[in-house]
Write a structure and sequence with these properties.
Helix 1 packs parallel to helix 4 (about 90-100), helix 4 (about 90-100) packs antiparallel against helix 5 and helix 8 packs antiparallel against helix 9. By secondary structure, the chain is mostly helical. The chain has helices at about 10-40, 55-80, 80-85, 90-100, 110-125, 140-145, 150-170, 175-205, 215-240, 245-265, 275-300, 310-315. It contains twelve helices and no strands. The longest helix has about 35 residues, at about 10-40.
């Protein structure tokens, strides 16, 4: 397949990404049930409460998400972000199907079609994904991260996150889904770049080349921890305020677009591919977006208990 194809590392990354999608998709539902139970006896997370920290169901969902994130973490060490990140669409399918049965958030025929489109688009991207570039040291990743293009991207992301948290969240967080999800998605794009760096460091360390003697490895680790904490806080607020089946696709779309954009700037994933391969991947991604749109619209047609929050999405 020229500059692409399923190399051994890509296959490992694919298997890890698929298992990650299952665990993460399930965790949305388990955490949602935990948040609802906690909200019935204490201050809801969407109103600034943290009673969910005492709810075993929420912790079960958190553990499930951690398992999924560990698998996702490992996937980034073997495969490029442009392969791993779009496969997150499969977690939307898992979340939508489980929400249909466990939360009574009905999945209509267009939702089923949306699931099919997500699978088709994911398959297209998998078959035409670029091979992972050879990196022999975490210092190489540091050199990529400190190029002017990515530094500019990072500064813009941090500025937007601070603006959303300080100015927008207090005013519009409860009515506009894009505020909480925007914070999570922007931070998520930096998280993935950090995760990829730490994943590569661990991979090389296990191969006998200790990367934890470099301060850059610890810097990337701190970035991942900070970004994850911010994401977790605002994802909990979003889950407690809006419909799960709306959060999942919107979060996926924003997070994936920003992550692929960040990866193109930092790792230059498309440099080794020809125009037809890039266009095929873009078409696959557009197909996935169409599927997530249908999954959202099918919830617009439904009668779930939190549909009063849906109109806020159209205001974004």
């Amino acid at each position: 397949m020229g500059g692409s194809g399923l190399s051994k590392d890509n296959l490992r990354g694919l298997a890890l990404a698929l298992s990650s999608s299952f665990f993460i998709g399930s965790s949305f539902i388990i955490k949602k049930k935990g948040l609802k139970k906690a909200g019935a006896t204490g201050i809801r997370a969407g109103s600034g409460g943290y009673s969910y920290l005492y709810e075993p169901m929420w912790w079960a969902g958190m553990i499930t998400m951690i398992i999924g994130e560990i698998a996702n973490f490992a996937a980034y060490a073997f495969a490029p972000a442009i392969l791993v990140t779009p496969l997150g669409a499969l977690s939307i399918i898992v979340s939508a199907v489980l929400a249909h049965f466990m939360l009574k958030e009905k999945l209509h025929i267009f939702g089923v079609l949306g699931c099919v489109l997500c699978v088709v688009g994911s398959t297209s991207i998998v078959l035409h994904a670029p091979k992972e570039r050879d990196i022999e040291s975490v210092t190489q990743v540091w050199d990529l991260a400190t190029e002017p293009g990515f530094i500019a991207y990072g500064v813009v992301v941090v500025f937007l996150v601070i603006f959303l948290i300080v100015q927008m969240a207090p005013r519009y967080g409860q009515t506009h889904l894009v505020v909480y999800v925007g914070i999570c998605s922007l931070m998520g794009s930096l998280t993935v770049m950090g995760v990829k760096a730490v994943g590569i460091a661990l991979k090389l360390t296990f191969e006998g080349l200790n990367q934890f003697v470099f301060p850059q490895t610890w810097f990337f680790t701190v970035v991942v921890i900070i970004c994850c904490l911010v994401q977790m806080n605002y994802l909990n607020k979003a889950l407690d305020t809006f419909n799960t089946a709306v959060i999942s696709p919107v979060y996926y779309v924003m997070f994936t677009i920003l992550t692929i954009f960040a990866s193109m700037i930092m790792f230059k994933d498309w440099n080794s591919q020809n125009a037809s391969q890039i266009v095929t991947e873009i078409c696959g991604f557009v197909t996935i977006l169409s599927g997530t749109f249908l999954l959202h619209k099918t919830k617009d047609m439904g009668t779930s208990p939190t549909t009063e929050s849906l109109p806020a999405l159209s205001n974004s």
